[in-house]
Amino acid sequence: MILQALTHYYETMLAQGKISPLGWDDAFKVSFGLELGADGTLLQLIPYKVAQQRGKKLVVLPQSMRVPAHVKRSSGVAANFLCDTVSYMLGADAKGKPARALECFAANKALHQQLLAGISTEAAQAILAFFETWNPAQAPSHPLLADAWKELNAGANLVFCYRMQPVTTDPEIAAAWQQYYNAGNAEATVGQCLVTGKDAPIATLHPSIKGVRGAQTMGAALVSFNAPAFESYGHTQGQNAPVSEYAAFAYTTALNALLADTAHCRCIGDTTVVCWAEHGGTVYQDFGMESLFGPPSGVDERELRGALENLARGQHCEWKDTPLEPGEHFYFLGLAPNAARLSVRFFLQDRMGSFMARLQQHYRDIDIVRPANDPFPTLPLWKLLEGTVNLNARTKAASPKLAGEVLRSILSGTPYPATLLQGAELRIRATRDVTRAQAAIIKGYYTRYGHFPKEVLQMGSDKEIQNIPYVLGQLFSVYEQIQQKAIPSINATIKDKYFNAASATPSRIFPVLGKLAVNHLRVLGRTNTGAAVNFSKKLGKFSEIIGTAYPDRLNLPAQGSFQLGYYFENQNRYTKKETVKEVADHV
């Protein structure tokens, strides 16, 4: 289904004139141009690198240019038309293998002589003359190449130019290439394509996919059979999954275009995520990415949430002056690196409205009262995952695999992975505190888990809750507040010493905490009688619910209730009553 969806997207974009036509690559990275004279003489080395902003740095990168589609080289020698590396274009390199460089040059010469024979344009004749007169041995010391020789050998791609223009713009040369490409590989096996269903030449090797973070810079394969262990029934390489040369070009071109579109490509953990609409609308991509990963600066989040809610209800809406339809077919694809191949973390397809309904449910599941100093009205995914991360570690990133699993559960509407809860619990035990992200993880996980007291899974603190572990968490928070009020200069509170034990074995710890609280209230009563009275009233209400006996042990879900009670009671100190109501009304 992935290949079919990408091929269909390619055809949609091609009809709109937004993607490379068959046999061409519109975004190939070219570093230099070889300017040729009419007699084939090398007249100039044209630098095509341009300065581009990458974060806070200005870097010089190769320029994207339309060139004939490149072949995929697994081994051996295979030349490309009009644009290639220094070995193929000049017959020399710095790899210390002069014989192989000459072999590459000879293959390139033969290809150009085959395609340009009979073409009388000046550019075509200049290229043919170049191959007849060029001496590869002079390349490293050539006055036009010597200063840039090291850079030329650093993976640079070169294109032939005539009269300061790439020869790819010559209509007759372009037509010759198109005819050659359309004819296909005469030695290719003809079979039924599993993507189009038509009989066509089958691609032995598929073009590389570039732009997946962590994968090889030269590209990786989405479909690959490069060892006998992966083959069956005597088939080799691409014959094991027959995809036509057309479909292989179409799906890889579409995917490379999606990955190159930085505005609609995101990385979370080790997963690179792209999305697209069936009919190729970029506004759908904008909305899909902003809904999932949060809006960029300058975009009103309330407006985004309003549009998301409309789509979730099956209603069309306007976004960036463009109508969005809930029935539009939409796709999310997550890819991760795996040596020379790519792993598919997830591929999900559904109607736009269905995806937005799942996103809306996700935000409701993790919605929780936020601290006064928290700038995020809605927790973005990266901030949620931060609840599983040691922020003092050198690498402040969530587990790569976990990020992909959480993203999949959000988009598919399935329970969050248990590793998400485990990661949050580990951090709570290590820090003896509960952050907003960790409380949201606990709430979201148990909301979807199902076997959990519903009264605990709420937005804010509610003193009427009768759940004992939850109330114990509130009680612990009040004990800590009493200690802080009584001893303002204290550096380490009861939380630092007793939090983990109190949430696991209350019967062993809370009697000790109760005695400490009595002493702290006595001290507080000398300086702030009103606060001591108010705290005493709170403790009395909690005692009515808990009774005289504390639970011996709390299991993991009960500990989650304890932690939520502690978090909510802490936030209740700083959150005005009307603020809690406003958040609840927002949901």
Q: Care to give the gist of this entry?
A:
With 587 residues, this protein is of the alpha+beta class.
Structure, described:
The two termini are 36 Å apart. With 587 residues, the protein is of the alpha+beta class. The chain contains 20 helices and 17 strands. The chain is elongated and about 100 Å long.
Q: How large a portion of the residues is in β-strands, by DSSP E?
A: 5-15%
The unreliable regions are: 577-587
Number of strands: 17
Q: How far apart are the first and last residues' alpha carbons, in Å?
A: 36 Å
Residues in helices, as a percent range: 40-55%
Query: Structural class, from helix and strand content?
Result: alpha+beta
Radius of gyration: 32 Å
* Overall 3D shape: elongated
Whole-number average pLDDT?
89
Q: Could you describe the largest sheet, including whether it forms a barrel? A: 5 strands, mixed
How many separate domains make up the residues? 4
Give me the number of helical elements: 20
List its traits.
587 residues, elongated, four-stranded antiparallel β-sheet, alpha+beta, five-stranded mixed β-sheet, 15% strand, 4 domains
Write the layout of secondary structure elements.
Blueprint: H1 2-15, E1 24-30, E2 32-36, E3 42-47, E4 50-54, E5 57-61, E6 63-68, E7 83-84, H2 86-90, H3 98-116, H4 122-133, H5 149-152, E8 158-162, E9 165-166, H6 171-183, E10 190-192, E11 199-201, H7 245-260, E12 265-268, E13 271-277, H8 282-293, H9 301-312, E14 317-319, E15 322-324, E16 329-338, E17 341-351, H10 352-366, H11 381-385, H12 400-412, H13 418-431, H14 436-449, H15 468-486, H16 494-504, H17 506-527, H18 529-546, H19 556-574, H20 577-586
Parallel strand pairs: 2-8
Antiparallel strand pairs: 1-6, 2-3, 4-5, 7-8, 8-9, 10-11, 12-13, 13-16, 14-15, 16-17
Helix pairs in contact: 1-7, 3-4, 9-10, 10-14, 13-14, 14-19, 15-16, 15-17, 15-18, 15-19, 16-17, 17-18
